[in-house]
Design brief:
Helix content of chain A: 25-40%
Oligomer: heterodimer
Largest sheet of chain A: 5 strands, mixed
Distance between the termini of chain B: 68 Å
Radius of gyration of chain B: 22 Å
Helix content of chain B: 10-25%
Number of helices of chain A: 5
Shape of chain A: globular
Number of helices of chain B: 1
Largest interface: A-B, 39 and 34 residues
Largest sheet of chain B: 4 strands, antiparallel
Number of strands of chain A: 7
Number of strands of chain B: 12
Strand order of the largest sheet of chain A: 5-4-3-6-7
Structural class of chain A: alpha/beta
Strand content of chain B: over 45%
Structural class of chain B: mainly beta
Order of helices and strands of chain B: HEEEEEEEEEEEE
Order of helices and strands of chain A: HEEEHEHEHEEH
């Protein structure tokens, strides 16, 4: 009888575990694909490309306006917006803008690093993961960009490529909002 | 009683595994390309037969050709998992259409859109066993539309081959030459 109870108990635990793991398929705190404006951006900690093993934690950037840009080396439209980001980082970096490129490639650090050098990227690139993609609503199409104010709230999102002026407006919005906002130059 | 409880336990474990199995099977996401099933390819022992694979790229999307113009772009490729002694060779991809897109009108990309046909040869060596076979494979591609690109995908495909017996056995089995596709 004791043996039977143990068997049933183990089976019950396994069954419950399976159900729980299924419910947890979408990471806790993940954005849904719909309305995200005003929502606190999900935190992540990712390996910095060419960072000698260092990681970057998004929440460490509080106080800065942040553009989180999901991209990949195989993505043509991503290549178009990168030179704009280089200019924006140069112009608004001193006023507290940080652009974070999240590479969704699985082609390895060297490929990403070479590509970033070729594109003369002047902002940090981190190695994206499927889990972080899920946290940000799936990120099925690239590029996808999230604009965070200085408190870490999402103030805008861009799915796919848009014009340079659309990105500029969203960056200004991110820099101007939030507690402790520092006025950006040229606004 | 003990046997019944053990069965209940086993059922719970099996049932508990079902949702995940279904989920992983259905987790392929959106497919931007579909495969048009083809008729059974008949090939005689010691002979070869042409085969044409037809794919349809969803409207408003494109995929890179087999020879994209820059190395970071992912080429479209057909791969097979071959059963027995069957060989597939001389895979001929269509030339890509040089197209510029709104995201960069200054640059042309080599892409496929609409219907894509890939030709190949199926070869059955003399020693291949006569009868039906199913060949499985996958099309590896990476799709984009006019302002975004989507992660690389693998589209599973399969087709049937019927190997017919050769009327004349040219050589003894042990003396046969290896097949070669020209």
């Amino acid at each position: 009888m004791f043996f039977a109870v143990v068997v049933v108990a183990i089976a019950g635990l396994l069954f419950a575990g399976k159900l729980m793991s299924r419910r947890n398929t979408v990471a806790a705190g993940a954005l849904n694909a719909g309305a995200v404006i005003g929502v606190q951006a999900p935190d992540f900690e990712l390996k910095v490309i060419d960072g000698n093993g260092k990681t970057m934690k998004l929440s460490d950037l509080r106080g800065k306006a942040v553009l989180v840009n999901f991209w990949a080396t195989w993505c043509g439209p991503c290549k178009i917006e990168m030179p704009w980001f280089v200019k924006m980082q140069e112009k608004y970096g001193p006023d507290g803008l940080v652009i974070v490129g999240v590479a969704m490639d699985d082609s390895g650090e060297k490929t990403i690093s070479d590509f970033a050098k070729q594109m003369k990227i002047n902002y940090p690139i981190v190695q994206g993961t499927e889990k972080v993609g899920e946290l940000y609503g799936g990120v099925e199409g690239l590029p996808t960009s999230f604009f965070l104010d200085r408190t870490g709230k999402i103030v805008d999102r861009q799915l796919g490529l848009a014009s340079e002026s659309v990105f500029m407006d969203a960056i200004k919005k991110a820099m101007g909002n939030g507690a402790g906002a520092k006025p950006a130059s040229g606004q | 009683m003990r046997t019944a409880l053990i069965w209940i336990g086993m059922w719970a474990v099996l049932f508990g595994g079902t949702p995940q199995a279904q989920e992983s099977a259905a987790s392929g996401g959106h497919s931007y390309v579909s495969f048009v099933p083809l008729d059974t390819v008949t090939v005689a022992q010691g002979h070869k037969a042409p085969v044409t694979f037809t794919f349809r790229v969803e409207k408003s999307y494109h995929i890179n050709s087999n020879k994209p113009l820059t190395e970071e772009l992912i080429p479209t490729q057909l791969h097979f998992s071959l059963p027995g002694e069957i060989a597939i060779g001389k895979v001929e991809y269509p030339a890509g259409i040089l197209t510029s897109f709104p995201f960069d009108v200054t640059q042309k990309l080599s892409v496929y859109s609409g219907e894509v046909t890939i030709h190949a040869m199926v070869l059955a060596p003399q020693e291949a066993q006569a009868g039906p076979l199913t060949v499985h494979g996958e099309l590896r591609y990476q799709a984009c539309d006019n302002n975004a690109c989507y992660p690389p995908k693998k589209l599973p495909i399969s087709f049937n081959i019927k190997i017919s017996a050769s009327s004349v056995r040219k050589r003894a089995r042990g003396n046969a030459q290896s097949p070669h596709i020209h």
